[in-house]
Amino acid sequence: MSIQPSATIEDVARLAEVSIATVSRAIHTPDKVAKSTRQRVNQAIAITGYTTNAMARSLRMGRSNMILVLAPDIGDPNFSSILIGLENEARAAGYGVLIGHTQNDPERGLEYLKFLNSNQAAGLVLFTGHEPFGHQEMTARLPPSVAVFEPVFGARTSYVGVDDTAGARKAAEYLLASGHKRIAFIGEAKTRLGHTRRRKGYDLALDAARIPASSRMVIDGDGTIESGRLALEQLFMRDTLPTAFMCVNDATAIGVINGLSARGYDLPRDFSVIGFDDVPQATFLNPALTTVRQPRSAIGRQAMALLIAQLGNGLAESKEILIMPDLVVRGSVTAPGKK
Q1: Cβ-contact 128, 70 below 8 angstroms
Q2: Residues with Cβ within 8 Å of residue 32, at least 6 apart in sequence
Q3: Which UniProt keywords apply (predicted)?
Q4: Which of 85, 228, 278, 316 could cross-link 144 (Cys pair, CB 3.0–4.6 Å)?
Q5: d(Cα 228, Cα 240) in Å, to the nearest integer?
Q6: Cβ neighbours of residue 162 closer than 8 Å, sequence gap 6 or more
């Protein structure tokens, strides 16, 4: 069986009927190429499979043109939309993207750490909320890195994501404006910086409304559907119940809604629920979930642009870019006791 030769930039130029220089500009600086020409080049790239050869080109050039993306759960509904933004920006700059699925397994994290230290990736994008850990010397030699979705403790890793504090404050203020005073925060997790920031937004809104800290209800949670259901069970063991649940993310909110529905409550007449993220499932709940929307594609684009800039200038100075989220009002919030 014969092996097909790797596609070259000449193949793309021939098929698109443009010069090699135009192909290069369409890949690296697409804003400088006419839309019709860029479309022809992109079609030729897709047909020839030229972009799949980024690793081979990297090896020939003696440097890596690959970006490693580490994610604990590629099934997370936030992952795919951020990845689209990452890939589009990387492709435009001539980089390929590799996905490392850690599954929250330290052994897998160590494997990817060894991969990074063998210079097979020029840069690193982290969804994990922490740097890959293992051998101390290897960890100290990480390439330029940017975190998305979940900020990393410490100042070494740049971060691009939603403004968690401002978004959570919007959510809490909306519940307050709807007439709620007894608002439970579900999803406290001191080991996750994003959760901590969302808790801060909740506190800032309630502080402004002069609701004393002693009357606030805060329940731990790890951001899963099951943690939302368990938090609900904890609250129902108390004498005083909230009228509204402010959840650290939509998965937690789904768990709360499922638990309330299983108890026979009518939402939002009996309880209001608000989430954070605006995952696709949010619109299919009954009632549809009011939530805070993460601009996921924009996060991916800006994160990759920041990483590529770091690679270009050889600097890895950490910085944080926060994007303001939007409140998406649906049917899961109403005034307390409203019939």
Answers
A1: yes
A2: 25
A3: DNA-binding, Repressor, Transcription, Transcription regulation
A4: 316
A5: 18
A6: 292, 294, 295, 299, 322, 323, 324, 325
Q: Write the pLDDT tens digit of every residue in 38-65.
A: 888 878 877 876 654 444 444 444 456 8
Low-confidence ranges of the chain (pLDDT < 70): 1-7, 28-31, 49-64, 106, 115, 117-119, 133-141, 155, 314-316, 338-339
pTM of the model: 0.78
Q: Does residue 287 have a cis peptide bond before it, meaning omega lies within 30 degrees of 0?
A: yes
Report residue 73 as tokens.
Answer: 């759960």
State which H helix or E strand residue 69 sits in.
strand 66-71
Residue 244 belongs to what H/E stretch?
A: strand 244-247
Query: How far apart are the C-alpha atoms of 74 and 77, rounded to whole Å?
Result: 8
Handedness of CA 280, 78, 180, 166 (dihedral sign): negative
Q: Residue 22 has which token pair?
A: 């135009």
**Domains identified in the chain and CATH numbers:** 9-162+297-323 (3.40.50.2300), 164-293 (3.40.50.2300)
